[in-house]
Amino acid sequence: MSIKLNKICREYNVGLHAVVEFFTKNGIEIEPSPNAKISDEQYALIKESLDNRPLRILPWAAEPFTNDPRENREIINSHGWNKLRNDVILLWENKYILFPKTFIGSGLKFWTVDVIQSKCPSAIIQDRVIYVNKLCEHSGLLPVAPDISEETVHHDESVFRFGAPKVNKTIAVQGKIDLSALNSATRPQRKTKEEKRIEREKRQKQHTSQNSKIANDVKGSSNNNDNLSKDAIRDIWQRFVDIQEKLIRQRCSPISIKTDSIEIENDKLHVTVDETSNEQQVEKILKEQLGADDYNLESGSILVDELKWNNLTENELASIRKTLSANYIELDTTPSINATIDYANSMGRSDQMSIEELRQLESIIEQGHLIEGTIDDTAAFISKVTVLREEYMHYLFGDHYVTYEKARKKNSKPQIIDAFEYHNQYIPLEEYNKYQDLGLLCKHYNIIFKVNNESAKEELKDCYDCWFPNTETFEFKRAFTRKDPFHPNFLDEINANIKAFMDEASMFCSASDIDIDVLFSYTISKHNLIKSKLKEVATVLSGREGYSFNEDTGAIGIDFDWRNQDITELIRKVEESVPFIKVNVFDEHRYKCKVNTQIVGFEEIKQALEDKYEDITIENDNVYHKINIRLPYVESDLYDPLCARLQNDLLQVSITGINIEFVPKVEGKIRLNVNYNAESRLEDLEESIVDMRRADFGFVLGEKEFPFGKLLKANYPELTFDIDVAEEKKDQVIEAFESGAISTIVPILTGDLEKISRLKNTFTMATTGADLANSRLQRFIFDSSEATKTTDIELMLRHDSVVYKDLCEHLLNTRVNESQKQAIIKAMYADDLAVIQGPPGTGKSTAIAELIWQLVRKGLQQGNKRERILLTSETNLAVDNAISRIVNNKTNLVKPVRFGGEEKLESEGLQFSIDLMKRWVEEGDACLVTDETDEETETKITTDLILKNWVNNISERAFYRSDSEDNEVIKRWRNYLSNPNKKLRDIVYKRYVENANVIGATCSSIGDKKAGNDEFNGFTPFYHNFCDVFKQKKGRARIEFTTVIQDESSKATPAELVLPFVYGNRAIVIGDHRQLPPMLDKEEFEETLDYALKLAVDDKDKKNIEQLQQFVDEHFDEMEISHFQRLYEGIDNSLKGTFNLQYRMHPDINEVIEQFYREDGGLRCGLTYPKDLGVNDKNIKNPASRYHGIDINGLIGHDTHVLFIDSKSPEMLDGTSRVNYGEVETIDKLLERFENSNTFQKYLERFTKEDDKQIGIISFYGKQIKQLRSVAHNHPNLPIRVSTVDRFQGMERNIVIVSMVRSNIIQSSKNQLPNWKRYPDLGYPKQKSLGFAQSPNRLNVALSRAKRLLIIVGNRELFSELDIYQRLFATIESNKNNNVVTQEEV
């Protein structure tokens, strides 16, 4: 019988190399392959050796074992010790417990420390390992129940291994197809467009009739219809969360990297993104579906196979166009004849011209015979700065700088290693510390002993194992690592080592017989060294007019007068100002210059051709100095006569020096025009990568994914990763990158996978009723009418009731209004569920703080001192906004704690962070000061801490009404409390956490076990924090809260909304269904159900999925209704609250917003109702004042609070996003008007907080946001925050500008000019889609962010298509204070 090596590797969890090395040492040559076989004798030999291996001793730090076998089994399983890779020995109390990887039986053997020391001391080595075969009889058995729930899992520790394909043992034959029957006569004939139109109309009639029949015969009544919809939506979401984990893995797109850019230093991986990599999806479509074998998207046209093109159905063509559009390619589906008129004799591109070409072009323009136009005075030199690294290192370290080659396994070219070697010298510690920013590291030192006495040498060889025969020296090497770093006492350590050797050697020879050398080896980070030089360049060039420099990439730009300045001299001065750099200049360097040229008589040529050909397109391309002509044709027979006719007409253009060229027709091919927006594609790629900072990344070999670390820094296209793998795998990961084998990396969406897995688990709990804190949740969370009603609510709400009077007497915030009080009482006394509708500015966060205060107070009154409330939302910002309102200077009764990484929390919530509290105990107030900068506001981030607020409250209360100025004891106590030492900080932290009663966390973080993996993968940070705060045993504790409050619930999907409530006895849902609903993608649901259909287990399951597919197809609009809205509309009035007074907006702005809330009873301004609190008070210190005092002639007066700018500019599709360049320009001009306004400068002086000064600019499309941010940078003196509407939900600003983007006209490129001949009405093609605005919710959020001044820039004609927007415009115009202007007036 023969045995494969991989069996041994799996059985004993050892690497293949270790097995082969064992046989080699025993004189047996074995092929180093996992499939190599060995004999029974050889197997017995290695088995004996491996069975007798020493076992590591691991300390047991978890909860103590008991005498209960089942309880011990729970403890073991909860910490993953039931899934071991090897046998281990655990040290618990005074017992060594043997944990076999395959444990069978009713107990674990253990030996006491005393027994081992007395009976078998040779079994234990240095308290680190134990030889089991040397142990005596065991002392006893630890009782443990058998684990029958799971099979033992064997793990493969190897880093690189190809997964074996899974193959069914039998192949089931489902049926046969008679291929001979598929002859040409039986093949379906292609239908004409008219036939297809008739078929579509017929299907629509059948569809309408079928829906009517289903509605009448099956659903019967509206109630049944509602129930069917609820069931279907619930089932669809169950399928959705079940499938998403697999689909997330499939959609994880790889990022191509340049293999020659890979650089690894000090566990940091530096790579550059390969921007030239082709999209596989695009290539597949163009080559396989269109037959475009050889194409260049930059050329503006592609050749497709004529036969394949003609055979495409309308649906196939629509699908192709959609996919290409998502990849930034616009395909014109009408073939065309393409021709060009080159009027600059093939001169270079105007944005890439040499100085000589610029002078040549200027000379031609001055002659006026061929080209007319202008050339800007300023040209831009664009290049990169190179750091002369080797010269710089020679300068720093002189002759100590050395290089040597390191061989690579898979690459013939060796790696060059830099080092700095000092013989009997070293870099002093103060100098060493000075260069830490360059990454200077002492890697190791070698102590080298040369013994010149032969007999002594032989004696010492037996004493030491550091003899090197090649050099005939004894060498002690001391390496420094991240875990064991270089330390200040290194000289003492060296002297101690020398003394130890010399003491030993003195027994055999004298000190004069021994020569001693010490060799220090240092390295420096190439990356840090280069970055430091580039930073130096940035400092020198900062503030210089006409110079720009990116210190992250080394890109440099110099604007210069190309007619009068010498760029060579300017470059020389830059190089002289910073030593050891070089500005890269090519022999024929080209410059970017704004050139606006056209052929003389262009307008006449264009007009003549447009008069003759109806659909011809003629564009002047002043970049390439050409006229591009495209003449579409419908039938292929028309190509030749049309082409001949156009050629004849172009011959009439009698201008000397032009070159007319027709793109030739290719037999069997059709030429289609394309517009490829490569710049936009790269912008989106950059944005998506930058958004993945701190995400885990990996690479794929074979079918297996290998994680290697986190993305630390993204200065696109340069990325920096932290290589974070086990030490034994690190060399293999580094070798894989350095060998060039890795050309793509992939984000490992662990967070997304964990989130969807938790959604799946909790949604299943809610639908099945398993393990719920409130067993009734299964019913009422999907049908809120099932929630237990509060029978005596009317009595409680009476102003003379005990409940109402008690609430009013103990208000945390005395400004809580009547609608808020009613909602709070309903929520407090709900048994199962309460729903609160809160429009913008109505004080949801204030009401949540009041509700929490009242719940905690009520709990204490009833004797429940451990009230446990969970405050949650889908976003960190919403949680932080709500939790921050709890802070007050009156009481310490409510003690909130925020779970979640500090880096994810907004400044409002950071003060409650449990992680920051722990750091404060250790570091004091120093940890509250941060150097981080808000990316959008560019201001320093600072934070407070709730523990300090708590101590201040105690201090104020303790010394209330005392005269501290004369009392020395009180002075000292005040100073002690205001400047707490570590001991006091620790006491404060422990007492606070012991009495914590409110936990803040995002919905997606809530759960116990880490998910996304079939095997136990540890507990979540939330669970660890929960157990620590509430003193629960990990592995045995259940997450449970008395009340769960979810804010911003209207944005949550059913699965997201359900997640936190499975852990609560009472659910309080707060939101606004007139604001942002969850973002759902119909295609995503269709894709999910298609995938589920493939996995269907039987016909019944398949039929059920097909019914769900039909529901999605026909009723997706019902799915888009937020689950919050369903709960709000279905719940009993005793459990439902509505806020109807807003305190954010000026009444004039409120009039505009009120349109969105008419169906809910309207929305009133609490600043003027029931009485005017001073809304127009010029003293802005009055909190009710919404006066701004800005006066901009023709646009804004002191009383203007709503300005509408009617935009007539076209929108443009940009990838999957949209942009409106006309609106961007308008907002740029508007900001310029603000900048030049004296009244606006006075307005800014009235405020101290940055948020109050900022102008908020909101839009609905990422590409528009990108353009608006560029505009904002052009106005550095204006405080501006630009964000999407999603980011702005929950925030407010005094002045808000909203860019609507969508227009009733559309352009295909940024520089497209209006064509009044082809589009006589508007100059551009018309379009009617409202896009995002089809549902008013998103616009409601955008408009309701403004407090004092709302400015809307949008196309009135398009948005008037909906009645609600017509009312909105009528409201704006009817108010004499408001202003409506055109773009031109701005």
Q: Can you put this structure into words, describing what you see?
A:
With 1386 residues, the chain is α/β, with parallel strands linked by helices. The protein is 37% helix and 21% strand.
Task: Specify the number of helices.
Answer: 47
Largest sheet: 7 strands, mixed
Cα-based radius of gyration, to the nearest Å: 38 Å
Q: How would the global form be characterised? A: globular
- Report the end-to-end length measured between terminal Cα atoms: 90 Å
Give the amount of beta strand, in percent.
Answer: 15-25%
Write out the strand line-up for the largest beta sheet, numbering strands in chain order. 7-8-3-4-5-6-9
Structural class from helices and strands?
A: alpha/beta
Main attributes of the structure:
alpha/beta; 1386 residues; 7-stranded antiparallel β-sheet; 7-stranded mixed β-sheet; 37% helix
What's the short version?
This protein is of the alpha/beta class. The protein contains 47 helices and 54 strands. The longest helix has 29 residues, at 222-250.
Helix and strand layout, with pairings?
Layout: E1 3-4, H1 5-12, H2 16-25, E2 37-38, H3 40-51, E3 55-59, H4 69-78, E4 88-92, E5 95-99, E6 107-112, H5 113-119, E7 124-125, E8 129-130, E9 140-143, H6 193-219, H7 222-250, E10 255-256, E11 263-265, E12 268-272, H8 280-289, E13 301-305, H9 306-310, H10 314-326, E14 329-331, E15 336-342, H11 355-367, E16 371-387, H12 389-397, E17 401-406, E18 415-423, H13 429-434, E19 441-451, H14 454-463, E20 467-468, E21 473-479, H15 490-505, E22 514-523, H16 526-541, E23 547-549, E24 555-561, H17 567-577, E25 581-583, E26 592-599, H18 602-612, E27 617-621, E28 626-632, H19 639-650, E29 659-662, E30 669-676, H20 678-690, E31 696-701, E32 704-715, E33 718-723, H21 727-738, E34 744-748, H22 750-768, H23 777-780, H24 793-797, H25 802-809, H26 818-828, E35 833-837, H27 844-861, E36 869-873, H28 876-884, E37 896-898, H29 907-910, H30 914-923, E38 929-933, E39 940-942, H31 946-958, H32 968-978, H33 982-994, E40 998-1002, H34 1021-1029, E41 1041-1046, H35 1054-1061, E42 1064-1071, H36 1082-1094, H37 1099-1119, H38 1123-1130, ...
Parallel strand pairs: 3-4, 35-42, 35-43, 36-40, 36-41, 37-40, 41-42, 44-45, 46-53, 46-54, 47-52, 49-50, 49-51, 51-53
Antiparallel strand pairs: 1-2, 3-8, 4-5, 5-6, 6-9, 7-8, 10-34, 11-12, 12-33, 13-30, 14-30, 15-28, 15-29, 16-24, 16-25, 16-26, 17-18, 18-22, 19-21, 19-22, 20-21, 23-24, 27-28, 31-32, 31-34, 32-33, 38-39, 47-48
Helix pairs in contact: 7-22, 7-36, 7-37, 22-35, 26-27, 27-28, 30-33, 31-32, 36-37, 39-47, 40-43
